[in-house]
Amino acid sequence: MEKQHGYRGEQLRALRRGFARRMVAGLLAWTALFGVWAVAVDAFVAPRLADAISSACPWRTLSAQEADLDDTVWFEASLEKTRVTMISCYAALLADDKTAYDRASDDARGVSDALGAATGGAKSSGVDSSDAATSGDGAMADQGAATGQESASDASDASGKDGVSDGALQNLDAAADGSMHEYRSAMPSEDAVVAGILADRDEASKQALFEEACAALGTDPSAVRVESPWTTEQARQLWNEMYYADGHMEYRDLGFYDFVRSLRLSMSVVLYLAGVIAVLAFALAWLTRCFASLFDAMEALFTKRDEEPGLPRELEPTARALADLRRGRDDAERAALAAEQRKNELVAYLAHDIRTPLTSIVGYLTLLAEAPDMPEAQRARYAQVALDRSYRLESMMEEFFEITRYNLGSIPIERERFDAALLCRQVADEFYPAAKARSIDIEVCADDPIECFADAEKVSRVLNNLLKNAVAYADKESTVTVRARCEDAPGAVGKEERDATCRALVVDVENQGREIGPEHLQSIFEKFYREDGARSTEGGGAGLGLAIAREIARAHGGDLTATSVAGRTVFTLRIPV
């Protein structure tokens, strides 16, 4: 049992180590793979996906009243800068176009003249394309006012209408020949000149000039964007708000984008946990394969198949335990076969032993019945022979009943005090006639007296069996020795628990004769076992004497052992007293 518990503990530790090793290796591999994947997605996939989602979000418009930008400091500054830029471009246009100059208002011509005087009358703006001299239509874009120098198509896509980037103006009307003209405003220093000219004017005058400039440049204040509070990098990454000169604004409704962005962490956690579950499933699959291999091995063990399925390395303790079970099963099967064989032999022996005395009894009784005038002496001799055979048959049947009782564990032990030395001499005296017939001496060596507390009748039965065998198998003209003594012995063996040390009666029965082989020394005490294959009609018993003797010894808490060396055989009875 302790060995099986050792196997179980070792096996549990091996399975725990294997499961933990696979879990740790799988989690480390998955964590590294997940980290590389997360970095790659964040660097390459996430920006493109964010642009795609944000670009798909719809634009929303807020009126000037809803936007409420009038008292916003940054908006007032950006709006003033945009008006200066527009008026500066308009003044530059008037300086280049006499017709437009004639149609302009007095305030506009005054600003144009002042700008020309401040710059020495030189032209401050020019035509970038080859068609600048002939085309009156065109577009002007302010590149010095603010953040973006976006193309017309980019600005149109961003705003959803004709317009320009922050602080820039752009008219998308094309010339008749399909060419596009772009006018650039004066240098920032010229914007500063215009800002100085307008500084003395009131708000209404500046607004009127701004609206006139918008009309002359083919646009409207509601289409002119002002510089946003975003930096250039922020505007590039999140182009989601646009502000216009008339105070209204447009923005992207990024609710869906924000919702998707909010799922980023939770989706990452879910994905990582899914990987952890996959690793756990892999480790559990390994455990399942181990148990499947174990079930196959158990099936092979119980179905008694010759081939043994291989078990994984982690199930080595279980493999050793199964090997022990297989050996135990094989030993039990061999023992059962041996017991079955001995039982079959016993049946044959019984048939022979019972038939022999019965044949004699029937024969002699038949002679008595058929010869009523038989002489009295002969009649008495025949009757005595039939009676002896009946006693022999009764003795054999008593042995069988007694071993049956012992098998059921119902040996009654009735202890009493007696002299063991005297008991040995009494039993020896019973065998003097049989020993004398074979010229065998029986010598009893015992200290007087040896007081014992045991079942005298059962001890006498043991000594009777031992002396019977000793006389039967001793060499002729040899000596059978019986030695009895008391000695200290370790704790009792068998059914009764005693002190760590106790006094024990030790009786040795020794004879010189045929040697008992080592393979038979333990088997001779088994039920139905006989060393010799032949049976003696006269002296052979049922072969149960030594089995009964050992059962009696163990019922007392002792034991019966035997040794046989060079023909010297010694049976030793040891029982606590």
TrEMBL record:
Reactions catalysed: ATP + protein L-histidine = ADP + protein N-phospho-L-histidine
EC number(s) stated in the UniProt entry for this protein: 2.7.13.3
Domain Histidine kinase, chain residue ranges per copy: 349-577
Source organism, top-level taxon: Bacteria
Chain residue ranges for the region called Disordered: 116-168
Compartments (UniProt record): Cell membrane
Main subcellular location of this protein, as a coarse class: membrane
Pfam families: HATPase_c, HisKA
Any one Gene Ontology cellular component term annotated for this protein: plasma membrane
Transmembrane domains' residue ranges: 269-288
Xref: InterPro entries: HATPase_C_sf, HATPase_dom, His_kinase_dom, HisK_dim/P_dom, HisK_dim/P_sf, Sensor_HK_Regulatory, Sig_transdc_His_kin-like_C
Alphabetical UniProt keywords: Kinase, Membrane, Phosphoprotein, Transferase, Transmembrane, Transmembrane helix, Two-component regulatory system
Any GO molecular function: phosphorelay sensor kinase activity
Protein name as catalogued: histidine kinase
Source organism: Slackia faecicanis
